[in-house]
Amino acid sequence: MQGPGKDGAGSAEQSTQSTQYDGIGEKYLEIKVLPAVQPEMHSILSVLGEGGVEGMKCLDLACGTGKYTHLLSTLGASAVTGYDISPTMISSAQALYPLSTHSALHFSILDCSLPSFLPLSEKGSYDLVFSAWFLNYAGTERELTNMFTFIEAAMVEGGRFVGLTTDAHDADMSLPKCNFYGLDIEVLEPQYVAPDTREVLGIKAKVKVGKGGFEFDCYQFRAGVYERCARRAGLELRWQDCVVPDDERKVTGYWDEWLRRPTFAMLEARRVGEW
User: Fold this and answer.
1) Which of 45, 73, 49, 46 shows the shortest CA–CA distance to 59?
2) What superfamily in CATH does domain 20-168+222-271 come from?
3) In this predicted model, what pLDDT tens digit does every residue of 16-39 receive, in sequence order?
């Protein structure tokens, strides 16, 4: 599928971004309340740090319904742009956070999987680039490198990227997760072979949300794949810790299995030499 360029016209380049969320829309909010996903907010806040976005211009890639776009604004960002390839998701974000009451938030349809789709006016203009569940839709190293290159192109000098993706460190990623804190994760390809290099990069999985809810496919690449693709884009990647809610469940061991096989991994990146 072709993605929109600067003026919304089609590009001759091949898009790699998933459009499976067109049929999900606001139903996607259902996943955000499940126990499996509750550590997301705590982990993101931990990596951003106190005052970590104050006064900053931020970009949220694959913003979906805008939950984290809005979060960045509440944390003090001066302006936040949310991009998503799905018109359905952007419409939902605009309905949830209308410009009339959220003047710092701007949502637009854009495929973020190829660097050439980044508007020229926005290159090198964002203090922070953020993404939750974006990088995990790359099916090859080339696609993942393109996504990192898009990120690098959007950052100001000295800017940083904070992202959330599938768990790249899971030694048991080829095993399914059944009724895992409200999710079912089916392994479609336990040894996922990239169609271009014929190398095993990790797995391909299907995430199922509730009975009769919705489902989507994604990729779970190993940490080394992320690191070398980021490096090709001129970025140095560092992995950060996941953080579970600090409530009564923590002391009872409720999160022990989740911490053994988290549903996501946190990463941070800066340009090579800027750490």
Assistant:
1) 73
2) Vaccinia Virus protein VP39 (3.40.50.150)
3) 556 655 555 555 666 667 899 999
- Return the beta strands (E) in the chain as ranges: 57-61, 79-84, 105-109, 126-132, 155-165, 177-180, 183-193, 200-209, 214-221, 235-240, 265-271
Alpha helices in 49-136 (DSSP H): 67-74, 87-96
Tell me the CA distances in angstroms from 242 to 72, 163, 169, 185, 237, one per residue in order: 18, 12, 12, 19, 16
Report which of 127, 197, 174, 161 is spatially closest to residue 47, judged by C-alpha positions.
161
Q: What is the pLDDT of residues 97-116, one digit of tens each?
A: 999 999 999 999 999 999 99
Question: Taking the domains of the chain in order of start, what are their residue ranges?
Answer: 20-168+222-271
Determine the residue type at 244.
V
Identify any residues that bridge with 236 across adjacent strands, giving them in sequence order.
270
Assess contact for 67 and 60: CB atoms under 8 A. Answer: no
